[in-house]
Recover the amino acids of this structure.
């Protein structure tokens, strides 16, 4: 699991329990702790700021309603990231559009093409835009949330082996798109 | 390293950098909006209708003449029914069943608004209750109270079970944060934590009548950095209030308790009960108002192993009732003082109900019962009400509301099966013996 998901478990658990019982201050603390990581996952799927904000807001509304169903308070981080990813996917599919925002203005010049062989973000954005929301969700959960295939399967309804094979195909496709252009 | 592996590493790196472009958002606004969208009725259904009808908007846009006509027609019909029937119903519909009603808020499946419902003590007589979200009975069962978050601030509404409209008191001039409060046993006064004007994260302890009159500050905000009050609870004898001081860890966002204090309801005789550190949790008065049950640590401020302790309000007789083989929380004294109930959970395990007979030797382990989301004692102390949630699918939940005897011997008895979630701990009305 990446550092994105690591929390002080016992303290976090008590905050989750209080929020599940309707304590709005505790819920606000959860938002402070997890909103940023949820936005990062959603942004990879949505591709633009407006849709990301909508997806994250929607995810928190669902989280507020469903917190009492969370069996293990210490797993609230992955649980929230899964909701954010699914809301982002749902929102993009509902709006039936691909990300069109040009991020090149927001990227530092040395980020666009990296001399050390890193993938340029403009190239990445273009490649992501050609993927389906389902595929972008897989990438976000694997490489931004840090989920393994079993965890991804839990949040997507796929089998763990299905997740692994789809990710392998995705990586190969992106390698072709990005490295061979 | 293969080309595929190298590319995967580059891809992970790029996705991580790309994700950093995610837009910033206002955490407070996100939380408030999420709670609003989660369904929180203002002043109940009638209040919402009145709000819709009389909101100060331009005529023809917000004001709806059709709604007004329907409202007047319903009002006229109600007057006719009352006149023809020769009576005006005065008693509250909540006072049903021999042992008092159980009121709770349900978040139905399908993203519908939260509803308040009540059932008789035997689980029958389900009916809707016109109140705000998460209403609670006063200790004597004669009043029902709830919070209403409005543009002008957070208000407390208290409705007498004998009838009449609710009394309304302004607690905080802002509706942006939740307000912790507890009623006096007879529901005539309220203690609450009010944010200071200088620092909204710091709170002061206030006490005031529930008739709308101004309250009095009985404890100034704690002076330490990152400290705030919480866990306030009015004693059963009505004379004192217990509360805790928590210190926020800015690195983790979590808090640990640094002190438990008791103060007279007029602000007099404030004294420390214990400085034993502990987690954020409830403080439970014994029925005779002489002791407090709480969670505490034996290992220091940062300990993650907490146990149930009982201490006299004079700070004497502090003793541990559990050992740390599992994590307890939410201790609650039975109304007759014979038992303590709490939830216990091991690593990664669902919480289970547990009770501990206080007459037994302290070395006796607590009795563990069924899995449980929360619990409350029945007013007569013979049983506990609790719930288990079954996630049917991603959008559908089913809550089994059940009771079980206090020795946790018998099987749980289902009181209601709720299509949705019970969004906060219910409240069980205490009726006179």
């Amino acid at each position: 699991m990446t550092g994105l998901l690591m929390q002080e478990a016992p303290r976090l658990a008590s905050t989750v329990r209080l929020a599940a019982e309707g304590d709005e201050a505790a819920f606000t603390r959860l938002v402070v702790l997890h909103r940023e990581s949820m936005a990062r996952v959603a942004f990879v799927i949505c591709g633009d700021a407006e849709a990301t904000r909508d997806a994250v807001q929607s995810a928190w509304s669902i989280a507020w309603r469903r917190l009492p169903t969370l069996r293990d308070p210490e797993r609230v981080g992955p649980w929230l990231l899964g909701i954010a990813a699914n809301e982002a996917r749902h929102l993009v599919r509902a709006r039936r559009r691909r990300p069109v925002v040009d991020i090149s203005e927001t990227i530092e010049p040395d980020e666009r093409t990296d001399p050390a062989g890193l993938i340029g973000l403009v190239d990445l954005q273009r490649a992501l835009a050609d993927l389906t929301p389902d595929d972008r969700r897989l990438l976000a959960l694997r490489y931004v949330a840090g989920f393994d295939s079993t965890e991804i399967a839990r949040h997507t309804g796929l089998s763990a082996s299905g997740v692994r094979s789809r990710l392998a195909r995705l990586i190969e496709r992106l390698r072709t798109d990005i490295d061979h252009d | 390293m293969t080309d595929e592996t190298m590319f995967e590493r580059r891809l992970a790196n790029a996705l991580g950098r790309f994700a950093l472009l995610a837009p910033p958002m206002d955490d407070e606004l996100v939380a408030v909006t999420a709670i609003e969208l989660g369904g929180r009725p203002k002043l109940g259904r009638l209040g919402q209708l009145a709000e819709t009808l009389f909101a100060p908007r331009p005529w023809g846009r917000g004001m709806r003449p059709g709604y007004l006509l329907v409202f007047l027609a319903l009002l006229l019909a109600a007057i006719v029914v009352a006149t023809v029937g020769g009576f005006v119903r005065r008693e509250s519909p909540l006072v049903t069943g021999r042992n008092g009603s159980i009121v709770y808020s349900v978040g139905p499946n399908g993203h519908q608004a939260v509803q308040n419902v009540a059932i008789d003590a035997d689980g029958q007589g389900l009916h809707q209750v016109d109140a705000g979200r998460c209403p609670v009975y006063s200790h004597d069962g004669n009043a029902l109270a709830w919070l209403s978050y409005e543009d002008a601030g957070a208000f407390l509404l208290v409705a007498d079970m004998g009838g009449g409209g609710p009394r309304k008191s302004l607690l905080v001039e802002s509706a942006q944060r939740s307000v912790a409060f507890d009623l006096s046993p007879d529901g005539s006064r309220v203690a609450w934590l009010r944010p200071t004007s200088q620092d909204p994260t710091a709170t002061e302890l206030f006490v005031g009548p529930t008739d709308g009159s101004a309250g009095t500050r009985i404890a100034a905000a704690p002076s330490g950095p990152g400290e705030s009050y919480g866990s306030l609870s009015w004693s059963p004898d009505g004379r004192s209030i217990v509360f805790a001081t928590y210190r926020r860890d800015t690195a983790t966002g979590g808090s640990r308790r640094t002190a438990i204090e008791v103060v007279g309801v007029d602000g007099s005789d404030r004294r420390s009960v214990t400085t034993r550190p502990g987690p954020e949790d409830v403080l439970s008065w014994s029925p005779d108002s002489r002791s407090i049950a709480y969670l505490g640590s034996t290992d220091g401020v940062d300990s993650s192993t907490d146990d149930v302790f009982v201490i006299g309000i004079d700070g004497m007789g502090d003793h541990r009732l559990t050992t740390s083989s599992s994590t307890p929380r939410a201790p609650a004294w039975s109304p007759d003082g014979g038992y303590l109930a709490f939830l216990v959970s091991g690593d990664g395990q669902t919480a289970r109900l547990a009770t501990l007979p206080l007459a037994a030797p302290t070395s006796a382990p607590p009795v563990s019962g069924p899995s449980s989301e929360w619990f409350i004692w029945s007013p007569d102390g013979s049983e506990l009400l609790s719930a288990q949630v079954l996630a049917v699918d991603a959008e559908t939940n089913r809550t089994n509301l059940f009771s079980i005897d206090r020795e946790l011997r018998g099987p749980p008895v289902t009181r209601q099966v709720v299509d949705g979630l019970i969004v906060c701990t219910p409240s069980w009305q205490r009726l006179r013996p």
Observations:
- The radius of gyration of chain A is 17 Å.
- Chain A touches chain B through 69 residues (CB under 8 Å).
- Chain A has one domain: 3-179.
- DSSP finds nine helices and no strands in chain A.
